[in-house]
Design goal:
Layout lengths: L5 E2 L14 H22 L10 H4 L5 H29 L10 H4 L13 E2 L9 H11 L2 H10 L3 H4 L5 H7 L11 H11 L11 E5 L6 E5 L25 E3 L6 E3 H19 L28 H16 L10 H11 L3 H8 L10 H11 L13 H18 L7 H21 L9 H11 L2 H11 L13 E2 H18 L11 H12 L6 H15 L1 H4 L13 E5 L3 H31 L8 H13 L10 H4 L8 H16 L3 H7 L9 E3 L36 H5 L24
Parallel strand pairs: 7-8, 8-9
Antiparallel strand pairs: 1-2, 3-4, 5-6
Organism: Aspergillus sclerotioniger CBS 115572
Pfam families: GRDP-like (PF07173)
Protein name: Glycine-rich domain-containing protein
Amino acid sequence: MASLLPSDEPTASSPKTVFLTSQQCIVHLKLLAAFSDLRCTISNHDGLFGLHDADADRVPAQDKLGTLIQEKRWAVYITRAVKRYTAWWLDCLLDQERIPTIADIRNDRYATIVKPEKRLEWQESILPPLDVLMVWHSHMLNPQKYLEDCIRHGKMYVWGADFPWELVDRHIDGENFEYVPSEEARKFFETQLGINWDNLLDPSTTTVECPKCNSIVIVDWTKGQVWPCTEHLFSDLTGFADKGFRVTCHECQFSIDHDHLKVAKWRQDVRSLLEQDRPMPGCFYNIRGVPFPAPESWKKTSFLYPSQLVHVIGDDMLEFTDPTADICHNISDLRDYIEEKAKERKTLQMAHDTHLFTSQPVRAEKLCIRRMMSRYWDNSGPFALNLTGAVIRQGKFVQQMDRIDWIRSPTLHSTIERLMAKYQIFFKIMIDHPRHMAVPTLDVDLAWHTHQLSPARYYNYSVESTIRPVQFIDHDDKVDELKLSNGFEWTCKTYREVTNGGIYSECVCWYCEAIRYPDIYGRFRASAAISNARRAADELHSQPNIASKPKFGPHISAHNAVRLHQLSKSESTKREVRALRLFEAHKKSLRRAEKRANSLGHAESPTAFASAIAAVNFLILPNTTADSASQDEISISSEEDSGLEKMEHIGNAIENFFDSLEGLVDGLGDLFPDQPNSMDASHHGIGNCISGTCSVSIAGGSCAACGNTASCGACGGCGGGGGCGGGSGGCGGGGGGGSCGSGGS
């Protein structure tokens, strides 16, 4: 255990000198390549977890089924990896600090919690297996939630340490990107945890605790019959890694499912609050993500308000959620109960410790209630987010990096230097425009992700850069795709303005062309910056390595894009209008490209538009290939199509863009206990706020589902987006941090 003791070296407090290095970015690319190879190996392992390719062959012309079965293998593997990561987190990274109570948070010393006196000293012996490393990687890329989990679990000495870049670099082969740690690391992991180093050598079963009698119940990871049709492919599977998980306790006959496990997590946290004075999840920092001492005055302790409210109704809630009562079956039932209790004047007065007649929650308190609830909607684990979903969403980024293949590029070092400089501009845009969502391109996102893997340095850089108000800029990994697209258009325009004509998305796919065209060509008079941007765009098209490979450019980073279900008519209309605008902009860019081609003496390809459609699908939908454009899409570019047929094809193209995740979600909806690529937008759907906690004026940390998305603000949401922390916004950040109300709470 000596190797796990923290170092006496203090955490760096001035990270602005060297906040990020090119070598860290390169090692990060190596690590992502190892993750990509791991996914390929697992997905293509026929028969793994009892999932056979032959199951897809039983239905003719159902090529999609084979892909879904491959994805299901990966989903089961990730669920197993999350369980292993949890064990490593709890039992290998031992708690070194006392978990703070509400009394501790009210103490002035709480402000120093982000300045741990000691930090973990990484050694080869404590490097985990690759699957565990992958989950940890995704965990860290949710900065505010990772900070919360380190505080809640007494692991700030881990938070204060950088990612073990040098060790990881040493143990990933530079040619085949195979991860091969030392034998000492293998022995330590297996001895400490009693599980195998190799995920695949672990048993086909796991255990859950019965919420009713606390017995340990053995369950299969995946169990049941795979149906040979897309709609019901995995609907009969009932293992722990399956959406339809259910098992009967052998002691008390209680029926256990994912919903009951989420309620059990809530009960455990309420008990910790009542018996040990430990705050509820989501109550460890203000709406801007910054931990600071909470004064006794309730008016200045907004982030503790959810704990105060739950403390008032805690005994009633334990009775309501008691499994023996069989009343509360899921978090929606729990939400409804809290909603009713929150209408009682006496409850609100006690939560505010006041006898005033008016004691309704203020705006920041409403945000914090939503933030607390977001820890439960799709999450029965001990962390602030569903790590299985986080890994799945990060997987899109991993695949995009693998396709671009910068790690094997002869210009790797110059590419890294350029993207680091671009990232600094992007970060300043986030700081200067806190009410907007800044959305990164893939190259910027690589630098941003790399920066976040040094949590304390990233935190310090963020708070030192945002003086008034101080803000810990988050990285929201679950954002409505429409808001992501709108944010990206704004970011492109702002980047062009602050760089005097710089091109933000150095890519020529149809989507990037459509985004760029209105800004730099849609003006009668061109400023100097616009003229510079036009020249830069022309130079971009003249580079053969870029123009010939549109899908390999640094597009918008859309790995966190999610699709809203149950859209209102107004929301559907917004998407249609947005799609038509993009389509018209792309048509104009095509005409300009045709003129450019004619002036150079060669004709534009007749399938240019089809290639553009394929490129954007390739960008946002990982499993789509460049060859997957349908014949209908290809015919869009043909001048021989009739006007009616063209409009029909345009409709298909629009649907492909705004429903780009729909094909993935429709096919993979039964793969996961909770859908990682979608959010419910219905009035009272999963992830919806407690009634009364949404506000038109709130711009940060919205709910995923309030019937009217505009009333909730930005896109993070109770459905798991984690946007309630200030400074969040998208995979882009910045949106909402400064608009959540004054008071710093």
